């Protein structure tokens, strides 16, 4: 099977720009070592992870009690995956040695029949496969496969790969369409996309076929999940019902994104992998329907998804409250995964745009600038007193917390950052597609030669991008690149001469010609500050605007603009200027403009026939993903505007 | 002891106007009989109350199992109180016979020592007085006292009075300041104000003193409640902590209204009774501080209080979300109780205004026009799909429910409606104060004669009120009446001749003169439609207006204005007209005006630099308390306005 377009192996990409390089190095220098300590319960004052200890118990090396969540193994797996990518990015023999040691331990924890899950090995062995819906056995298997594939790519060592192959081969004796096997599928999707990676690295179609089985089986009624013991209980809560698991109807009848947002987008990423290799029209159409629903009905402007804390889930079309948003960091990461795979099916502006939107806003907001603190939940509006007080804001933190207190988002950010190189390009026989603008140097094998493409840019702050080529010989192929939806105009030069950009398809500009060594294409996107308004169906944004420049969504913070940000009205018709941000954020573009602020001094709660006094103000907005780095305070993305209609 | 001003006994008031008479008759004809069936578990399909059955068990007449909430007895007590008022309003020998029978049963359920509580008599006798914080023994005692006093007033029969006196005398052997007694106070305030009623009817100061003890003892630290067994658990939930019970600090150190809203205002009503009889400056000042906090910081424009479902409680100043409001019907009723008592301390516009505001808006919205369905929770904004779906809207019903499904608000409305006559006036030696404008005929004993005052009005729809007097002889005294804050101008005529209204104090107009038989005062309030705006500190109402005419707050409903009410912008500068409401609401004034509505047809979720199209519209608003009587649909009180600044 062959995909329409392939991603580029991480080994061939070197990221060079200031913006991303710093973050990737944070992952290497801060997150990965710190997480290692956490997994080993070596962080004083932090809740112990138990993850490594559980493997030691399962391996028979100690006889402590297995502790932690049922999905604790996946924390180690995600760490292994991030560590493996990091080895590619920046080889470190000590880290490799550590990883080798862990893999050895994992091998010892694997059961003779291939089973690999510390919780059900040690704590509740009688419940193995008894609750596939909630047991997370298949979820943990998926993360372990992703780790194995990453480690294999990094080192060509198949130590972990052998372990997971043995495990999956065992799983296939338990689950599947054959008589006597369990007809089930992952309660938390993840194994689907992992099986595709396993297929890609082994060439064994049976892994791909198992993934297809999961997709086809999902949601058939009466649900296999209802026959399991524990769902009866969860079933009493409508937000944790079958749709929480995307299992309420067959997947090919699902028109709207329902349930737990991370589960949903991991699943859709797996479905996209299916289409990538099979060109299935049925599933392609299904994905387009679901994409449209997520992106045009249920996504925050930041690329955040899941607008309810309870169930961490999707709710209803246009139901996007800003203050009680969930918008889990992991869900935006999953959206990036999904978008990346959609781009391999068909390069379309919406996929690249949303990937970029999620990356620069909803994902990066999850991490503090020093890489040490995290948001799980990414609201678009913050009043700390309210978030800290109100019961319906319980899920919202008013400040980022030390990442060790929780186990899912930090390593997910780490594995995304350390593998960012695979999101920039895809290619097929004769076309190199650029989806993200990131300073990097990448080598492509195209038309029987190695092409080295060097991208230089100060993106996302600048719209200027140069792409220069090193060729072994001149040849004809196509460079395609995404024109972001926010850039109405685009200026393209080839070796200093303006070129026409009339070959645009689905938002991608195609330059097909004979290329020569040292050709340089420069692109200039329009970095105008946009006043974004929501579809008027979005109740919470009625009468409000958000500021966006390039892919970056801005916000107002209390530290720059005082309290009561809801009393500020932006003047959308006045000149707005881009200026250097406050120095404690580094020298990044802030936006300054004028407006008014209602006086909050009147003492009456209700006033008859009287408008509040307004003072003229200057306001300053900073990138949303930088919020919360200067202490606790109010923050607001959707701003009231002076209405001149 | 003598109060500054006394209420008028219900026996001397006959309500005659269309607006209230119909509602009081609903109470008599619908609510009271229906509730009786409910208390006897005779409503097919409804959850059984068990209340009467529990008394039969406690009386030894049957040996079933005691069921229902720990405070189930109070449902019967509230019914007895409402039934007693109804006997005054409209004597019914059958109803009196029923009440006599129930009182006989209650007497049999009373223990030899005087104890009277079916739950702790039958179900957990060993826990008597073990958990005063949550046990509701004192709360139920309070309601039984109120019933006893009401029945005595209605019939002069002291059968229930004797029972509660025996109970309270027993309580005083258990709780109090003496050595060896429990130093505690009600977890749910209610007994406080009931003890004052008992004092008023018996003249026994020991009951008043017990109330004072409860007020003085409340909130002393370390809290007696923390020594009880069950609060440890509740204590883990910050919204059910000591402040939930107004027990976090001594009451005379409480500057803000905290905790469960019903508990709070019942307590404040008791405190006001204390001041009424003692003129205590300390407690008067405390009440003024708390009143100011509630009314100027924590009250919805409807007189709803309690802006969080979890804990049914107060939250923070200016934290007044409209869609997830709690604004329990009972809390608005409690606010009426409190205001009524503040008026007896000192007639001030704010007390009368808030009493009226709560009555015409937050209380009446609790009941359907046919008197058969109820809201516990009174949101100021409704999108049914959202309320029915979102977890953080769980406490909000999108439609009123049959009142039998829940036990607290319906009988509370019933007892308020049937006793409305006591809220209209107060008097002292030489002044009759009019606080509410309600058609009625009332007799006062003033200056050694009986004065009959006949109030005629079509209030709240009309601002015209006439008050005519029947006197035995001409005499000098004062008629004082409230000038509502919403009426900037006021026209007063005496026997057809305009009189000066320059003697105004605290928002009350004082007419002191010699009055003659058949004198008629007519008052005309200004019924201009007001555009009300919130203090700009209220986040949820920023840029919005509410419509108010007279005391009545208006709202838009979907049935009149289509869906997506958030897309409507009112033109506050255009002419608004008062017209007859849709016929299915009866012939009441609706408000019509013009504005625009944003087109909700665009399909993109986010639009760059583009304003939504707007269509000119006419809209129609109806009184908030009438909403939800024409099927399920959107509703909105706070409306966006076209901003001409």
Automatic annotation (TrEMBL), chains A, B:
Q: InterPro entries per the record?
A: 6-hairpin_glycosidase_sf (IPR008928), Beta-AFase-like (IPR049174), Beta-AFase-like_GH127_C (IPR049049), Beta-AFase-like_GH127_cat (IPR012878), Beta-AFase-like_GH127_middle (IPR049046)
An example of a Gene Ontology BP annotation on this entry? Answer: carbohydrate metabolic process
Can you give the residue ranges of the Non-reducing end beta-L-arabinofuranosidase-like GH127 middle domain? 431-527
| Residue ranges constituting the Non-reducing end beta-L-arabinofuranosidase-like GH127 C-terminal domain according to the UniProt record | 530-640
Q: Which residue numbers delimit the Non-reducing end beta-L-arabinofuranosidase-like GH127 catalytic domain? A: 12-421
Q: Which domain of life is it from?
A: Bacteria
- Where does the sequence pass through the membrane? none
User: What Pfam family is a match for this entry?
Assistant: Glyco_hydro127C
| Cross-referenced PANTHER family | DUF1680 DOMAIN PROTEIN (AFU_ORTHOLOGUE AFUA_1G08910)
Q: What is this protein called?
A: Glycoside hydrolase family 127 protein
Question: What is the species listed in this Swiss-Prot or TrEMBL entry?
Answer: Gracilibacillus orientalis
């Amino acid at each position: 099977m062959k995909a329409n377009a392939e991603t580029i192996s991480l080994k061939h990409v070197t990221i060079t720009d200031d913006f991303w390089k710093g973050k990737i190095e944070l992952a290497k220098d801060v997150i990965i070592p710190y997480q290692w300590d956490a997994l080993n319960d070596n962080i004083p004052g932090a809740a112990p992870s138990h993850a490594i200890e559980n493997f030691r118990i399962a391996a028979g090396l100690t006889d402590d009690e297995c502790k932690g969540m049922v999905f604790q193994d996946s924390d180690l797996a995600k760490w292994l995956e991030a560590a493996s990518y990091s080895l590619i990015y920046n080889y470190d023999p000590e880290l490799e040695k550590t990883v080798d040691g862990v893999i050895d331990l994992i091998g010892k924890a694997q059961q003779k029949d291939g089973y690999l899950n510390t919780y059900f090995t040690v704590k509740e062995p009688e419940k193995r496969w008894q609750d596939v819906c909630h047991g997370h056995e298949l979820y943990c298997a998926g993360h372990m496969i992703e780790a194995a594939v990453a480690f294999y790519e990094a080192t060509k060592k198949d130590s972990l790969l052998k372990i997971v192959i043995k495990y999956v081969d065992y799983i296939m004796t338990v689950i599947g369409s054959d008589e006597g096997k369990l007809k089930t599928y992952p309660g938390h999707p993840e194994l689907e996309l992992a099986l595709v990676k396993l297929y890609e690295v082994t060439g064994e179609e049976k892994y791909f076929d198992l993934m297809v089985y999961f997709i086809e089986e999902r949601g058939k009624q009466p649900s296999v999940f209802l026959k399991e013991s524990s769902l009866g209980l969860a079933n009493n809560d409508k937000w944790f019902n079958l749709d929480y698991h995307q299992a309420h109807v067959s997947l090919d009848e699902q028109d709207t994104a329902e349930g737990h947002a991370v589960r949903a987008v991991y699943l859709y990423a797996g479905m996209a992998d299916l289409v990538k290799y099979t060109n299935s029209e049925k599933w392609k159409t299904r994905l387009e329907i679901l994409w449209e629903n997520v992106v045009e009905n249920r996504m925050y402007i930041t690329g955040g998804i899941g607008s309810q804390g309870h169930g961490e889930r999707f709710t209803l079309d246009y139901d996007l409250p800003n203050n009680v948003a969930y918008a889990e960091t992991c869900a935006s990461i999953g959206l990036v995964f999904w978008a990346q795979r959609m781009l391999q099916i068909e390069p379309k502006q919406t996929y690249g745009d949303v990937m970029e939107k999620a990356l620069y806003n909803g994902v990066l907001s999850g991490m503090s600038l020093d890489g040490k603190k995290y948001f799980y939940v990414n609201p678009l509006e913050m009043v700390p007193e309210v978030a800290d007080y109100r019961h319906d804001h319980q899920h919202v933190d008013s400040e980022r917390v030390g990442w060790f207190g929780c186990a899912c988002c930090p390593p997910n950010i780490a594995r995304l950052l350390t593998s960012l190189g695979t999101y920039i390009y895809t290619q097929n026989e004769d076309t190199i597609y650029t989806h993200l603008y990131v300073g990097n140097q990448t080598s492509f094998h195209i038309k029987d030669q190695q092409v080295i493409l060097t991208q230089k840019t100060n993106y996302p702050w600048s719209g200027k991008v140069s792409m220069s080529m090193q060729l072994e010989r001149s040849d004809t192929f196509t460079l395609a690149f995404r024109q972001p939806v926010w850039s109405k105009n685009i200026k393209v030069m080839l070796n200093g001469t303006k070129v026409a950009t009339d070959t645009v398809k689905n938002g991608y500009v195609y330059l097909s010609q004979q290329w020569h060594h040292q050709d340089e294409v420069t692109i200039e996107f329009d970095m105008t500050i946009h006043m974004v308004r929501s579809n008027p169906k979005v109740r919470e944004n009625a009468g409000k605007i958000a500021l966006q420049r390039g892919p970056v969504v801005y916000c107002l913070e209390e530290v720059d603009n005082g309290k009561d940000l809801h009393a500020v009205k932006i003047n959308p018709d006045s000149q707005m200027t881009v200026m250097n941000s406050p120095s404690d954020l580094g020298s990044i573009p802030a936006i300054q403009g004028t407006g008014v602020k209602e006086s909050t001094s009147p003492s009456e709660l209700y006033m008859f026939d009287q408008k509040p006094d307004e003072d003229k103000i200057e306001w300053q907005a900073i990138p949303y993903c930088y919020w919360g780095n200067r202490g606790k305070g109010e923050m607001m993305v959707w701003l009231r505007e002076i209405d001149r209609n």
